[in-house]
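Reading a protein record of the kind used here takes little practice once its layout is understood. Each number in the token line that follows is a code from a learned vocabulary of backbone shapes. One such record is shown here in full, so that the layout can be seen directly:
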Amino acid sequence: MPKVAFWQGNAAVAMGALAAGCRFFGGYPITPSSEIAEVMAEELPKIGGKFIQMEDEIGGIASAIGASISGVKAMTATSG
């Protein structure tokens, strides 16, 4: 029987990103995307990934771009 999991939308986004190979998250926890950062902070270290809480949304996207340019699958999340 296949494994079934039920998540809230933000947790599903984070788990989907991890399943797709995301290994870096740089972001600032802000409503309504805070849960994505929470899941990534908990799960990334378990698989050798890196989570960095940035000082603001600009820092989040800048760090994700830098990680991506270096060849790492990366993401950020923000409010809009």
The mean pLDDT is 94.
